Amino acid sequence: MIVDTWESFFVATVGAGAALAGLIIVAMSVNVATIIKIKSMPSRAGATIASLLLIVIVGATGLIPGISNMAFGGVTLAFTLIVVVLYWRTSVIGFQNPHGHLREHVLRAVFSALQLLPMLIGGVLAFGTWEALYWVAAGFLLTFAGATLNAWVLLVEILR
Asked: Distance between CA atoms of 72 and 3, rounded to whole angstroms?
């Protein structure tokens, strides 16, 4: 089975995603009072953690022995759609929030969409082919980048 050749990738990303999610939760607790004061930050924090949990869940699903294309695609698609809804909510709150410039909100919304689009494509394509794993891998990497950027904002930028 082709998914078996991805075992090392899934093990590495599941571990990294879980560790980063845990560190972000602990680190955000230091700034929780400031995060709560800024209207868009709690939803941004939640979406960031959810995106890392998406990597953990999809990666762990890929490690299930004998998993079918359909099951892997279904899990990937279902959990990605949940994270899409969370980022959509964050974007809506951000556009309604008077903090920051419109350009910043647009860029954040576009980057959120770009990081999740490969996961959506991978989830759909996985119903028919394991080649979808390349899309999922791209989504993982973009999600790591997006979560790291959001973590920086939640931990450092909000204190400026």
From this structure: 10
Distances (CA, A) of 36 to 25, 131, 144, 154: 14, 42, 24, 11
Q: CB under 8 Å to 136, separation ≥6 — which residues?
A: 58, 62, 76, 118, 119, 122, 123, 126
The tally of CA atoms less than 13 A away on the side-chain side of residue 67 is 25
- Over the stretch 38-82, which tens digit does the pLDDT of each residue have? 887 888 889 999 999 999 999 999 999 999 999 999 999 999 999
Q: Would you list the DSSP string of 121-148? A: HHHHHTTT-TTHHHHHHHHHHHHHHHHH
Q: Kindly report the pTM of this predicted structure.
A: 0.89
Q: Return d(Cα 29, Cα 69) in angstroms, integer.
A: 39
DSSP code at position 99: S
